[in-house]
Every structure is written in C-alpha cells, then in structure tokens.
Amino acid sequence: MQIEIRFAVFADLDRMKIILETAPCDWPGTVLHDCFTDDYFQWVVTLDKVVAGFVIVRNNIDAWEIMQIAIDKQYQQQGFGGRLLRYVIWMAEKMRRDRIDLEVRASNTEAIQLYQACGFQKVGERKKYYSDGEDALLLSWIGNNSPCR
C-alpha cells in the first residue's frame, strides 16, 4: 500500500467529481475546474495511485481558506482526511501562512473533531448557511498552535 499526497492535475478532475458527488456539500462538480487557477491550491491523496480524496485551498491575501475537503466513501475512516489536513497545515507553515479558515456543517461532528484536534477553533457561525437550512461553523487555525502532526 502506497499513500501519496501530490498536487492535483487536470487528469484527476473526473475522479474528484465522482468523490464530490457523494460528499455532503453544495458544490457542483463543474466548480472544480474553476479552482485550477493561481488563487487555489489543490492536493489529492492517493492509495496505490488511485485518488482517495482531495482538498482545495484558496490562497487569500490574509489567510488560506479550505474550500473543500472530500474523501471517497470507501476510504473514509481510514485517516485520509487527517493526512490531507496535516499536509495543508504543514504547507501553510512552510509558506509562512499563519492562518487557515474553513466552514463546516454543524452536524459534521467527525470533521469538527478532526479540525479541533489539529488546532482549529470556532470563531463564528452562519445560521441557515447551506441550501438545506443547516448552520455552518466557522473555524480558524492560527499558526504555531497546531497539535496535529
């Protein structure tokens, strides 16, 4: 078993769209193509060269923002999300970014626990943010406070 994290390439788009279709989010798969610009970083985690999940990070002026992190259902609960999150934090530190923001569904307790274990803290809330009326929690990671290794 070989696990690798690498930059996403256009050849990964179809697989990323399939993963996104089963994710609990409001993103249409067509948005993925738009994220292949200088304003974004996209990384995939692969298992034996098969894309198991991905993360998209927007490179804002004052902070990075995790726009989407999604793991294929068959690879969930196997640590792939944690690997991607730790990689994003490592890259932020390497590139001297001291803040990462994200939003997460209030009901997504597993993701919230992972984010908190990696040093993310709740900084706000958006009521009825998602199309189904669910609230979003706003979380931030501030550099040098990450226990997530």
Low-confidence stretches: none
Helix content: 25-40%
Report how far the terminal alpha carbons are from each other.
21 Å
The total domain count is 1
Briefly, what CATH class?
Alpha Beta
Query: What's the helix count?
Result: 4
* SS strand fraction: 25-35%
**What is the CATH topology descriptor?**
Aminopeptidase
Strand order of the largest sheet: 1-2-3-4-5-7-6
Radius of gyration: 15 Å
Shape: globular
Largest sheet: 7 strands, mixed
Structural class: alpha+beta
What is the arithmetic mean of pLDDT? Answer: 91
Extended strand count: 7
Considering the protein shown, what is the CATH homologous superfamily?
Gcn5-related N-acetyltransferase (GNAT)
What's the order of the H and E elements? EHHEEEHEHEE
CATH architecture identity:
3-Layer(aba) Sandwich
What does this structure look like?
This protein has 149 residues and is an alpha+beta fold. It has one domain: Gcn5-related N-acetyltransferase (GNAT) (Aminopeptidase). The protein has a seven-stranded mixed sheet, with helices on both faces.
List strands and helices in order, with pairings.
Elements: E1 3-7, H1 13-21, H2 30-34, E2 40-47, E3 50-59, E4 64-71, H3 80-94, E5 99-105, H4 109-117, E6 121-126, E7 136-142
Parallel strand pairs: 4-5
Antiparallel strand pairs: 1-2, 2-3, 3-4, 5-7, 6-7
